[in-house]
Amino acid sequence: INAEYGGNEISSIEQVDLSGNSFLTMLNMGSNGISFIPDNFFDQTALTTLSLPNNKLTKLNNKTLAGVDGTLRFLDLSFNNLEELSHVGLSAVESLYLEGNVRLVSNLPRQG
């Protein structure tokens, strides 16, 4: 199941009810005004693609994406206000977009 909520002026992600969406694999919530995602919000999904560009997110902690760790393959967080990004939930991510987050201080493991 795919869900498109992009460009809908959603300021609180809690306005979107994902309960009962265990077959949800793609979620686009780009170009809204989302500044916060509650812990465990994506736990009842099977997300492989999560698109949240052009919002107002400042951090994703270790509980934000924990429920999709192992299934999430594509994550777009570009052009937010990210200052912190936990590596929890990113173990299977193949494409990660962080462009435009000028204040990002990441605790992602560095290679090399």
Brief synopsis:
This protein is an all-beta fold and 112 residues long. The chain contains no helices and 8 strands.
Structural description of this entry:
By secondary structure, the protein is mostly beta strands. Helices cover 0% and strands 19% of the residues. It is globular, with a radius of gyration of 13 Å. 25% of the residues are buried.
- Hey, roughly how much beta strand do the residues contain? 15-25%
How many strands, which pairing sense, and closed or not: the largest β-sheet? 5 strands, parallel
Q: Span from first to last CA?
A: 38 Å
Bulk shape: globular
Our count of helices gives 0
- Reading side by side through the largest sheet, how are the strands ordered? 1-2-3-5-7
Spatial extent as radius of gyration: 13 Å
Nearest-integer average pLDDT: 89
Range of helix content: under 10%
Count the E strands: 8
Low-confidence stretches: none
Secondary-structure-based class equals mainly beta
H and E order: EEEEEEEE
Pick out its properties.
112 residues; mainly beta; five-stranded parallel beta sheet; three-stranded parallel beta sheet; 19% strand
List the topology elements.
Blueprint: E1 2-4, E2 26-28, E3 49-51, E4 59-60, E5 74-76, E6 84-85, E7 95-97, E8 105-106
Parallel strand pairs: 1-2, 2-3, 3-5, 4-6, 5-7, 6-8
